[in-house]
Design brief:
The chain is an alpha+beta fold. It is built from 8 helices and 10 strands. A 4-stranded antiparallel β-sheet has the order 1-6-7-5, with no helix packed on it. Strands 2-3-4-8 form a 4-stranded antiparallel β-sheet, covered by helices on one side. A two-stranded antiparallel ribbon has the order 9-10. The longest helix is centred in the C-terminal third of the chain and has 22 residues. It is elongated. The protein starts with a helix and ends in a 16-residue tail after the last helix.
Length: about 290
């Protein structure tokens, strides 16, 4: 799933390639992709892209045209991606069983496709007058890389939580943009068990977690800076230390990276770095390690 660093890199890429250009048409190919109907998608035809923003994992294309200012919001979900094409294929896209979900064409002949792998279709596109009209945007917590989001703000957010820290980091209404992969990376950098309850965090541990969160995300953003959209997935994978690396040696201590599986996801961690050398049992069969 694209998370904050990849979506920020896509924002930078689109800011360079889209701003100042005119949308000729935006064509939904998969019936499930478009989540709004007012204003209609045709309202952006002939509109200029004036800015590209980000809200958590949402991309926000601001357009100005005959219908006034509109925002095309894109959420790539778990298996979605954006493919820039210059030029776009000349023929109209054909609905079918392929991965293509939506095509956005510019008047110059270039543009982008939104694709989604797999059978579970969650990629979402909203055309709205205000980004906050999208419920997923309206409920977002603060951006962890925002200049005005300091360690005291982070501590205040966690103070009222009664759950494991892994789940808290992934909650978009608490902190925007962090998913399964980077929560694993942050907790490894902070040398903290993913199952540690937030109520048990000491002030020093909270500060260390804040520092690990900011540095992990910032380093990932910096690695992705200037990388072409088509190479961002590979860049993300190459930079991960523990997530998706079950059975491999920890790059810090050399211990074997282990995994805990859930019904629809899994987490990875290093026992030596994070749990005092104790392997975590399957969450469904044992008590949580504190």
């Amino acid at each position: 799933m694209p998370e904050l660093p990849e979506v920020e890199a896509l924002r930078e890429f689109l800011d360079t390639h889209l701003v100042g250009k005119e949308l000729a048409r935006v064509l939904p190919v998969a019936i499930s992709v478009l989540k709004t109907y007012d204003p209609p998608l045709g309202a952006v035809e002939g509109a200029e892209v004036t800015a590209v923003g980000r809200h958590g994992k949402f991309l926000d294309l601001t357009t100005e045209g005959p219908a006034g200012e509109l925002h095309l919001l894109i959420h790539l979900a778990r298996a979605g991606w954006l493919r820039w094409q210059d030029p776009l294929p000349s023929g109209p896209p054909k609905p079918g069983k392929g991965p293509l979900a939506l095509r956005a064409a510019l008047t110059g002949g270039d543009g982008f496709d939104l694709t989604e792998a797999g059978t579970t279709k969650r990629l979402a596109v909203h055309l709205v007058r205000d980004p906050r009209d999208v419920p997923g945007v309206a409920r977002l917590g603060p951006d962890p890389l925002a200049a005005d989001f300091g360690p005291d703000d982070f501590a205040t957010l966690l103070a009222g939580e009664q759950r494991q820290i892994k789940g808290a980091l992934r909650d978009q209404s608490l902190i925007a943009g962090i998913g399964n992969a980077y929560s694993d990376e942050i907790l490894h950098a902070a040398r903290m068990s993913p199952f540690k309850p937030t109520r048990n965090l000491t002030p020093d541990e909270t500060t260390a977690l804040y520092t690990a969160m900011r540095s992990t995300l910032r380093e990932a953003v910096d690695r992705s800076h200037g990388v072409a959209a088509g190479r961002l997935k590979a860049e993300k994978k190459s930079g991960l230390r523990v997530h998706g690396r079950t059975g491999q040696p920890c790059p810090v201590c050399g211990d074997t990276i282990r995994e805990v599986s859930f019904s629809d996801s899994s987490l990875q961690y290093c026992p030596t770095c994070q749990t005092g050398g104790k392997p975590l049992a399957d969450r469904r069969l044992s008590k949580l390690l504190k």
